[in-house]
C-alpha cells in the first residue's frame, strides 16, 4: 500500500512496542511512509518521558528506525489553512481534534494520499461528525487505518506470538490492544486476539461510519 501518512500516536505506540519499522513496512510495502516533520521531535520527546517496562534505548531505536525510512511532510500554507479551518470547526462543534491530527489530515487531503494511519480513535469519530460542517472531510472517508487494523496486519505478517509479546510487555500503552491480546491470560491464542481486535474495529466503524478503509482486516 502506498502513500500512507502516520500520525504521532502510531509513532509513539508502535515505537513503545519496538515494532514501528515493521508496521510501516507492512502497510506501505516498497513505498515511503509519510510523517509530519514536527512529529520526529514531539513524539520522540514524549517517548523519552514515558515509563516503560523495557529498555528505553530499544524504544528510541525503533522510533529512529521508523523515522529514518519516512518522508517528513511540512504543511504548506494551503495545508495549514485547511488544518486551522478544521480545528475551528471542531472547537465550534465541541469535538476532540488536536493540531497534529488536523495538520496530518490536511496533508492527506491536499496531497491525495491513500491512507491516514492513526492511533487516535477520538479523532476518527470527530472527523466523521464534522463531515456535514466541513464537507472537504468527505475525502477522508474510506482512507483511515486504525491501530487495531495495523495490529491485525502484523499478526499475519509476523510470528503472532512476537506481536502479542511486544504488546503485553508494555500493556499500559494502549488499553484496547492490551484487552484484545488478553495480556495476563496465557491460554489465549491468535484467533482470540483477532476476535478482540476486530470487535474494536467494528465498534469504530459504527461510531465513525464510512471513515475506515474498506480493506479486509
Q: How would you describe the overall organization of this protein?
A:
Helix content is 58%, strand content 7%. It has helices at residues 8-16, 20-28, 39-49, 56-68, 77-93, 99-111, 121-129, 147-157, 160-169, 175-180, 190-207, and strands at residues 4-6, 34-36, 71-73, 115-118, 144-146. A 3-stranded parallel β-sheet has the order 1-4-5, with helices on both faces. Strands 2-3 form a two-stranded parallel sheet. Helix 1 (8-16) crosses helix 3 (39-49). The mean pLDDT is 94.
Give a brief rundown of this model.
The chain is mainly α and 217 residues long.
Strand order of the largest sheet: 1-4-5
CATH homologous superfamily (4th level) name of the domain at 4-146: 5'-nuclease
The secondary-structure class comes to mainly alpha
- Ranges with pLDDT <50 over ≥5 residues? none
Distance between the termini: 14 Å
Number of strands: 5
Please give the CATH class of the domain at 4-146: Alpha Beta
Helicity level:
55-70%
Order of helices and strands: EHHEHHEHHEHEHHHH
**Mean pLDDT across residues:** 94
Defining traits:
217 residues; Rossmann fold; three-stranded parallel β-sheet; two-stranded parallel ribbon; 7% strand
How is this fold's topology laid out?
Elements: E1 4-6, H1 8-16, H2 20-28, E2 34-36, H3 39-49, H4 56-68, E3 71-73, H5 77-93, H6 99-111, E4 115-118, H7 121-129, E5 144-146, H8 147-157, H9 160-169, H10 175-180, H11 190-207
Parallel strand pairs: 1-4, 2-3, 4-5
Amino acid at each position: 500500500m502506498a502513500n500512507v501518512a502516520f500520525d504521532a500516536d502510531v509513532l509513539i505506540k508502535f515505537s513503545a512496542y519496538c515494532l514501528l519499522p515493521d508496521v510501516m513496512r507492512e502497510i506501505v510495502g516498497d513505498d515511503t511512509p509519510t510523517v509530519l516533520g514536527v512529529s520526529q521531535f514531539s513524539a520522540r520527546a514524549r517517548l523519552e518521558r514515558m515509563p516503560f517496562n523495557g529498555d528505553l534505548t530499544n524504544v528510541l531505536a525503533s522510533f529512529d528506525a521508523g523515522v529514518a525510512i519516512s518522508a517528513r511532510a511540512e504543511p504548506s500554507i494551503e495545508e495549514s489553512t485547511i488544518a486551522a479551518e478544521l480545528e475551528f470547526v471542531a472547537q465550534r462543534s465541541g469535538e476532540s481534534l488536536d493540531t497534529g491530527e488536523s495538520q496530518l489530515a490536511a496533508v492527506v487531503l491536499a496531497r491525495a494520499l491513500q491512507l491516514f494511519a492513526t492511533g487516535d480513535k477520538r479523532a476518527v469519530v470527530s472527523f466523521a461528525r464534522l463531515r456535514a460542517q466541513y464537507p472537504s472531510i468527505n475525502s477522508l472517508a474510506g482512507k483511515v487505518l486504525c491501530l487495531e487494523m495495523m495490529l491485525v496486519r502484523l499478526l499475519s505478517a509476523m510470528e503472532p506470538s512476537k506481536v502479542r509479546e511486544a504488546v503485553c510487555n508494555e500493556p499500559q500503552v494502549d488499553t484496547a490492544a492490551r484487552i484484545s491480546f488478553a495480556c495476563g491470560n496465557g491460554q489465549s491464542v491468535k484467533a482470540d486476539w483477532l476476535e478482540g481486535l476486530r470487535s474494536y474495529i467494528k465498534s469504530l466503524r459504527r461510531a465513525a461510519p464510512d471513515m475506515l478503509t474498506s480493506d479486509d482486516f
